[in-house]
């Protein structure tokens, strides 16, 4: 098995597949996650080939753009990797990374874990934080025609996975329902360090946002 060739062909496949994707889940997102994953993996004892395949294919068919169907992504990945004659154990591992990488409300019990999943999960979560994370959040909110902010709609921190998937809450709520929670849910030391820096940037952004809105801080009591 020529791993470098498979990674190159997977890269080409993903670029083509996501060429018309929403801006927060396009090829550039995959490229950033792959870069993050390689950086994090350098300090971990992992199978880098699995990490790279997982990073490249983790959003090949995000459920948000397939009517909530979480089976589409793993199936597309499996079909592609089978055509490339990737061993079954690696295909299963990549499928599980795709199935479990997403946040989905953060309250679902994770029944699969591996060092490779932890690396890809951290890499993906990093791209939901910081300046790019903020840009992606508002881009998706605009894509779904959601309001920026409504002081009277309180974030829901106890959503089930299905409630999370169906939420139409204002974009600012997403900071509390997911983004600000990620720092304390990172798996690796490198991921934790990078997440802390990006978390601080988001908190500064929210402070500025509320001041410009005309309130000194959000009034919610969690």
From TrEMBL:
Residues 26-129 form the HD domain. It comes from the Bacteria. CDD domains: HDc (cd00077). InterPro entries: HD/PDEase_dom, HD_domain. Pfam families: HD. This is HD domain-containing protein. It comes from Salinimicrobium sediminis.
């Amino acid at each position: 098995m020529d791993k470098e060739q498979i990674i190159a062909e997977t890269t080409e496949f993903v670029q083509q597949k996501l060429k018309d994707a929403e801006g927060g889940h396009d090829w550039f997102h995959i490229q950033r996650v792959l870069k993050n994953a390689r950086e994090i993996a350098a300090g971990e004892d992992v199978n880098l080939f699995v990490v790279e395949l997982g990073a490249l294919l983790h959003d090949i068919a995000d459920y948000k753009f397939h009517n909530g169907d979480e089976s589409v992504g793993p199936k597309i990945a499996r079909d592609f990797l089978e055509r490339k004659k990737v061993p079954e154990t690696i295909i299963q591992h990549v499928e599980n990374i795709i199935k479990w990488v997403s946040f989905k409300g953060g309250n679902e019990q994770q029944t699969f874990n591996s060092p490779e999943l932890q690396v890809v999960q951290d890499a993906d979560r990093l791209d939901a934080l910081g300046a790019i994370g903020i840009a992606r959040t508002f881009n998706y909110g605009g894509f779904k025609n959601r309001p920026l902010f409504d002081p009277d709609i309180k974030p829901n921190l106890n959503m089930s996975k299905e409630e999370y998937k169906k939420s139409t809450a204002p974009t600012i709520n997403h900071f509390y329902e997911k983004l600000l929670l990620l720092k304390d849910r990172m798996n690796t030391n490198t991921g934790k360090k990078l997440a802390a820096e990006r978390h601080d940037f988001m908190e500064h952004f929210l402070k500025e946002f509320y001041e410009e809105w005309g309130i000194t801080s959000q009034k919610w009591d969690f």
